[in-house]
């Protein structure tokens, strides 16, 4: 096993790869692909996530990508909504199907779905949603005509898991939005799904989030048995260990900045990528603070770690709730970054 990497070293590597040390001069599309998708449960959070990573990003750039179908909003890793490029959606979505099928067999809808031919439900739902995009609950009402003994909400949720559904604009736009109206990924892009191999998936993950353990990659993806893939890739990877002695894998030429590299204040949106991409998240947030992530609170990074949450007040000003006591110089830097975000959100 290789050299030990401290928590700060892992922090700096993650911050660098997630484009949070220095704002970049590249476009939104290239950023979304480099980050291997952006968490997007909250429709407007990807806009803040891009603003905090890019110079001169404006909302219309992402709106144009959604409308032109270059990027899509779709259920992916861990069964959550992500914003990804169209090609990554087609390549990643097949990998999530096993987990989504397991949810239907063991989750809260398992009992109401018992004895139902889910493939038949999915095929009927596909025809409905490709003919007229609509919410899954509405599609469920039409399916209830075929399966009158089942609740429409249960049938609609079966479609959510069994089909690759895209939430189409105006859902996810900045200047206007709407409820989740869905159609199938294949219909929206006029292409079939084509799964990337698991080796490529792991290499893309490491490029965006490494160095990482096998468990980290499994936490991010929702996949199991990735240890086999890491072993196949071992000859082309480098290995380290974390402070707990667990083996970390990485790409040989990936950036691993000095652990004392200075970092700017960054404001993160709800459920930002870096907060959910590892089994051990202490490289960016202390274990006793994970509740702020689960609760969907936007967070503040100071020196690379979560030290506060932020929110938009009724008067559109940004307020900060500190979890740590910070020196006045750091608080001043946080206030200045909040002012920049406030100006951007309310031009």
Fold topology:
Blueprint (H helix, E strand, L loop, with lengths): L6 H11 L10 H7 L3 E2 L5 H7 L7 H9 L3 E5 L5 E5 H21 L3 H4 L4 H14 L4 H8 L8 H11 L2 E3 L14 E3 H5 L8 H12 L4 H8 L5 H7 L4 E4 L5 E4 L15 E3 L21 H5 L4 E4 L2 E8 L5 E5 L5 H18 L2
Antiparallel strand pairs: 1-3, 2-3, 2-4, 4-5, 6-7, 8-9, 9-10, 10-11
Keywords, separated by commas or semicolons:
347 residues; alpha+beta; 15 helices; 11 strands
General description of the model:
42% of the residues lie in helices and 13% in strands. The chain has 15 helices and eleven strands. The strands form three sheets. The chain has a five-stranded antiparallel sheet, sandwiched between helices. Helix 7 (118-131) crosses helix 8 and helix 8 (136-143) crosses helix 9.
Please outline what is shown here.
By secondary structure, the protein is an alpha+beta fold. The protein is built from 15 helices and eleven strands.
Unreliable stretches (pLDDT < 50, length at least 5) are: none
How many E-type strands?
11
Helix-strand category: alpha+beta
**Radius of gyration of CA atoms, rounded to a whole number:** 21 Å
Gross geometry: globular
- Quote the average pLDDT: 96
Query: Within the largest sheet, what's the order of strands?
Result: 1-3-2-4-5
- What level of helicity do the residues show? 40-55%
| Topology as a string of helices (H) and strands (E) | HHEHHEEHHHHHEEHHHHEEEHEEEH
Q: Could you describe the largest sheet, including whether it forms a barrel?
A: 5 strands, antiparallel
Distance between the termini: 52 Å
Total of helices:
15
Which range does the strand content fall in? 5-15%
